[in-house]
Amino acid sequence: MPDGHDLAHHGDAEVGPGLVDLAVNVRAGTPPAWLTERLTASLAALAAYPDATAARDAIAAAHGRDRAEVWPVAGAAEAFVLLARALRPRRAVVVHPQFTEPEAALRAAGHAVERVVLGGDLTLHPGDVPEEADLVVVGNPTNPTSVLHPAATIAALARPGRVLVVDEAFADTVPGEPESLAGRTDLPGLVVLRSLTKTWGLAGLRVGYVLAPAELITTLAAAAPPWSVSTPALEAIRACTTTAAREEADRAASALREDRDHLLAALATVDGVEVRGTAPAASFLLLRTPGRTDVRDALRDRGWAVRRGDTFPGLDAEHVRVAVRDRRTMDAFVEVLREVL
Ligand SMILES: Cc1ncc(COP(=O)(O)O)c(C=O)c1O
């Protein structure tokens, strides 16, 4: 538990019977029936070992990359572990507040981790990251802050001799993915991680993928256990990288943006709470209640599960993360929050 932060804590530990779940960031109502049907059909091939070729081609086509530049993983979480095991960074830097598994994986592999902790409006300035850092991990959009850094800011962190890992697990919650670097092949050492967990409701399947220069993919692949991505997971990649599926994800992202704007407007009428970060862009908001560290428990007592903030480096118990749901749910939540405050 480095510096008292429980890096292994996750939102799913906060949900429980009888609680409205605003703690987990997986899109509600997922996976869609058409996807479940495709996954079910893929079970007919379970006797054979998985063959990732078609899934790699599908990822490559979706992002305009070569097959050699993509690698399926058992969730972005597996990629953090592979990177930590395969790379030998002399100075690893993780930009916080962000998802804690990258730092946990680096530490578990024996690497020292330096933190760059963003404050104030959570804007990232390329100069915040030490020049000597040869491994940098940043989330975009970032969990738990919902901040979407401009592509140019992230790109400015890339340089020869450095591996720049951009966790884009939530990129498809942003309509049009304007700040995604997934298709960029001009940036040295750029590793982009994608996940099918959030938008497609596949947390239990374990599926995502890595986009990186071919030589980095070769390094990662050498560290990967054989067949760690199952046949149904590979089928999910094929199903979710089609043009139709990507359009469906984009429509969901647009609907999410409207629900989030609705929640932001409602929160603006509540005294004692502020939204951290300018222009939140993902499927959740980071809320701060100055002077109040009991809000999570008080909400819980009233039947609402939100994700505690204090396990994230750079945050404290005045913070909670709240998933954006439909307007009726959000209106009810805001009234309970008003009462608590
Ligand atoms: C920012 C971020 N990256 C990665 C992950 C892990 O995703 P996966 O389920 O693909 O391992 C999560 C899950 O909470 C996350 O929030």
TrEMBL record:
InterPro entries noted in UniProt: Aminotransferase_I/II_large, NHTrfase_class1_PyrdxlP-BS, PyrdxlP-dep_Trfase, PyrdxlP-dep_Trfase_major, PyrdxlP-dep_Trfase_small
One Pfam family named in its UniProt record: Aminotran_1_2
Membrane-spanning parts: none
Superkingdom of the organism of origin: Bacteria
Residues of the Aminotransferase class I/classII large domain: 20-337
Keyword list, A-Z: Aminotransferase, Lyase, Pyridoxal phosphate, Transferase
Recorded GO MF terms: threonine-phosphate decarboxylase activity
Family matches, as Gene3D superfamilies: Aspartate Aminotransferase, domain 1, Type I PLP-dependent aspartate aminotransferase-like (Major domain)
Documented EC number(s): 2.6.1.-
Needed cofactors: pyridoxal 5'-phosphate
PANTHER family found in the cross-reference section: HISTIDINOL-PHOSPHATE AMINOTRANSFERASE-RELATED (PTHR42885), THREONINE-PHOSPHATE DECARBOXYLASE (PTHR42885:SF1)
NCBIfam families per record: PRK07908.1 (NF005915)
Family (UniProt): Belongs to the class-I pyridoxal-phosphate-dependent aminotransferase family.
Name the UniProt record assigns to this protein: Aminotransferase
Source organism (scientific name): Actinomycetospora termitidis
The encoding gene: cobC
